[in-house]
Each structure stands twice: as C-alpha cells, then as structure tokens.
Amino acid sequence: MKDRYAVVGNPVEHSRSPAIHAMFAEQTGQDIVYQRLLAPLDGFEPSLRAFAAGGAKGCNITVPFKFEAFGLAAVRTERAELAGAANTLRFDANGWAADNTDGAGLVNDLQHNAGRPLAGLKVLLVGAGGAGAGVLGSLIAAKPAQITIVNRSVDKAEALVASHAHLGVALSAATLPDAPAAQDVVINATSTSLAGAASPVDARVLKPGTLALDMMYGPKAQGFLDWAAAHGAEPRDGLGMLVEQAAEAFFFWRGVRPDTAPVLAALRASL
Ligand code: ATR
C-alpha cells in the first residue's frame, strides 16, 4: 500500500496542497498518496486519530487546527515551539512529531525565488495573529537588521516581541498607524485582504523597490498587490510561500528535497 498523507482543515476543499505534493511525488519518485480531509470544527483530534490508525504516515494542518495539532504532538521542532503551532505532523511509531514549515517557506520564497536576501534589511511584519506568529522565528533566523511588528491590537505584537526577544535581532512593536516608513520588505500577514481592503498600513511604509508580499494568493491578495505596485513596490503573492512550505513538509516526511521551481511555475499557470 502507498504511504498516505493529507491536508486536514475546515474548510479544506480549496487547498492546493494535494496538487503540489502529487507533483513533488512524481518528480522525486516517492510513491505516496495525498488527499484532503475535512475535520469537524469540534472533532479535529478524533478525525486525526482515525486517519493515523488507518495507516497514514502524516499530514499537513491548516486553519483553524494548527494550535490543536501542536498540542497533540509528542515531540516538536524548535521552529514549531517558537510558533506555538504546527502545520505538519509525522505519525512516528513512538509518538507524533510536529513541525512548522510556514516560516521557512516564506523565507525561502523571499530569498531564493524572489532573490531578496534578508540579511541587513528592514522588515515590516503586518499582523500578529496566527499567520504572523508562525513565521517570525524564521524571519529572525535570516538576520535582517530589524523587524517591526505592527498589529491592530498592539498587545499581540508586543507579546510576539517579548517571546522572540532572546533571538538576537532588533524587534519592536507598534500600532498600524505607527508603522515605520521606507521598509525594504513588507509582509502582510493579516486577514484584511479577505475583507477586500487594500492595505492595513499607509503607503509610506513602502519605497521604490520594496518587496511587498501578501501571504494570500489569488483574488484575496489582489487588493494589497495592486496597492503595492501603485506605490512603486515589487508585489509578490503567497503562492511561492505555499509551495516552499510544502517542500519543507515533504522533506520532513520523506527525507527528500523536491525542486520547487517547476512546481511553482505549473501552479501559477493553472491559476
Ligand atoms: P491568522 O491565523 O490568519 O493570522 P488570526 O490569528 O485571527 O488569523 O489573525 C488575523 C490577523 O489579521 C490579526 O493580526 C488581526 O488583527 P487583530 O489581532 O488586531 O485582530 C488582523 N486583522 C483582521 N481584520 C483586520 C482589520 N479589519 N484591520 C486590521 N487588522 C485586521
């Protein structure tokens, strides 16, 4: 029987992960199947246990179960610990192992696909919810000069600064209106694009050539990307991050690193 994996979420029918992992499997000759698994909002753990008991080897976890998944693991990678959330589980015989590959996915996309090494840059992270918290540790590991975290409720940004302060990069928190001007990289990790708003921060955060990335892709990201382009920034959606986080998960399960470039190109062409 083929090794089985899934993306577990609610909703999950929109997920592109099955298509991405099918391309990775074909490219690397790994004999796996990867499906979508809709878990009831109040029934994540039983759904997951049933999937694992049926012989599955692991899963990705998406909204809203990343925190619950983290709590179910016996061992966790350092980056999952920092995020306090897991997007990847491996069902090892001696206990479940949790990882969080979102931050590495974002950083790999920025540095390799977009060609923007973060070392020495000024980074603005907009949003201190689950998405922002999940990537901060990996952003810090890339050694930018500074990271400012802005959020509508500033206490959440301050909490992130406090929990990551020991990692050795200058971190500060501010409200959305107090976002600093002229940043090198601006990352939208809020869910405002779901509501159709262009940007939660003023255009003075941008300068010519700022890389402005929205973690979403498709129509949800368009308002932010149009706003960024209109102000001379280089817009980038979350599709590359999606493929890169999947590649990190694939490596966590299979020990094999897929080539992401053709997969990202195929996915972009299919949208
Ligand atoms: P996710 O897992 O997608 O990050 P979340 O944890 O609910 O979801 O976080 C949503 C983020 O979008 C938060 O940063 C939230 O700001 P608050 O922490 O102040 O709620 C932000 N957000 C959502 N709607 C917003 C809006 N209309 N304006 C500004 N920020 C918004």
Automatic annotation (TrEMBL):
GO molecular function: NADP binding; shikimate 3-dehydrogenase (NADP+) activity
SDH C-terminal domain mapped to chain residues: 238-268
InterPro entries: Aminoacid_DH-like_N_sf, NAD(P)-bd_dom_sf, SDH_C, Shikimate_DH, Shikimate_DH-bd_N, Shikimate_DH_fam, Shikm_DH/Glu-tRNA_Rdtase
Domain of life: Bacteria
Keyword NADP attached: yes
Annotated GO biological process: amino acid biosynthetic process; aromatic amino acid family biosynthetic process; chorismate biosynthetic process; shikimate metabolic process
Catalyzed reactions: shikimate + NADP(+) = 3-dehydroshikimate + NADPH + H(+)
Gene Ontology CC, one term: cytosol
Recorded family membership: Belongs to the shikimate dehydrogenase family.
HAMAP family, alphabetized: Shikimate_DH_AroE
Record note on quaternary structure: Homodimer.
Function field: Involved in the biosynthesis of the chorismate, which leads to the biosynthesis of aromatic amino acids. Catalyzes the reversible NADPH linked reduction of 3-dehydroshikimate (DHSA) to yield shikimate (SA).
Protein's name according to its UniProt entry: Shikimate dehydrogenase (NADP(+))
Native source organism of the sequence: Roseateles saccharophilus (Pseudomonas saccharophila)
Gene this chain is encoded by: aroE
